[in-house]
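re: the backbone from monday

yeah here it is again, tokenized this time
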């Protein structure tokens, strides 16, 4: 068996209100494209149910170079306190690997580009990150760290779009998917509510819905300037009309920018009842 290349940078035991002890770690995952991951899990050997958390993307290499190693920490700890092993991978092409200087023949391993807005490739960008989720599931299962067929995938923004893409291939281990502010092509040029080919995004959502049968929970926020209510409802309608299963919730405005709802500790009391009810229904 392949040896675990888990690189333990820190392990911080913590206590939940229900006395579930958890610990936080940083792992190096020996996937076909190796990457770091923030891992938080109950104390003990497991196996545990697995939750994968997909982060969003930036098309700007400089912005990706400053991407934090640990994102959604408080949200991840909430899932861990429910007894899950949470793996939040940091995608290739982020941090020190974000170098991308084509005129010097230097290219970072960033595989989630959508191309030009004239003809964006939303499909492949989503499926590329979905493939990483499948690699993680296979690796964690081979290491006997997780409970087979008890996997939940959570994604925010482009990570949520990847989760929608993942649902279209219906991987047997994945029993549910939760997305926050899912989509691609938001805020083109940094302008609020300026989307890249929104009609094509809706079409791609419908394409994924034609084969998707995984139960899904979609959470959007009224003051999201990347994927506003009108667009997210169009996506929901297209997805479900094509056959996909998506429970849609539009949350009230949050802060000055609702797109980063899941990243705020103060948002947990707002979304956790919805998520807990949804997950309990999948048991």
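seq for it, each position gets an aa:
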């Amino acid at each position: 068996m392949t040896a675990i290349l888990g690189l333990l940078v820190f392990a911080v035991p913590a206590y939940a209100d229900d006395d579930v002890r958890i610990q936080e770690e940083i792992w190096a995952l020996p996937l076909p494209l190796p990457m770091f991951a923030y891992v938080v899990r109950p104390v003990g050997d497991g196996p545990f149910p697995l939750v994968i958390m997909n982060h969003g993307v930036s098309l700007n290499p400089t912005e990706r170079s400053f991407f934090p190693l640990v994102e959604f920490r408080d949200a991840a700890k909430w899932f861990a306190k429910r007894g899950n092993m949470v793996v939040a991978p940091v995608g290739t092409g982020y941090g020190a690997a974000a170098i991308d200087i084509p005129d010097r023949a230097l290219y970072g391993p960033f595989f989630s580009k959508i191309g030009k807005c004239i003809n964006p490739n939303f499909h492949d960008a989503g499926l590329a990150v979905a493939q990483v989720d499948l690699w993680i599931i296979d690796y964690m299962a081979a290491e006997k760290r997780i409970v087979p067929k008890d996997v939940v995938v959570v994604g925010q923004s482009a990570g949520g779009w990847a989760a929608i893409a993942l649902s279209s291939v219906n991987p047997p281990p994945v029993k549910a998917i939760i997305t926050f502010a899912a989509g691609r092509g938001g805020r083109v040029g940094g302008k609020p509510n300026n989307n890249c080919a929104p009609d094509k995004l809706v079409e791609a959502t419908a394409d994924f819905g034609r084969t998707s049968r995984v139960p899904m929970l979609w959470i959007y926020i009224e003051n999201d300037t990347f994927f506003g209510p009108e667009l997210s409802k169009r996506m929901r309608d297209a997805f479900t009309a094509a056959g996909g299963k998506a429970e849609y919730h539009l949350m009230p405005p949050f802060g000055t920018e609702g797109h980063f709802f899941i990243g705020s500790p103060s948002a947990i009391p707002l979304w956790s009842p919805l998520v807990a009810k949804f997950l309990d229904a999948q048991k």
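The mean pLDDT is 86. The beta strands are 14-15, 21-29, 35-42, 48-54, 85-89, 146-156, 174-180, 216-221, 246-251.
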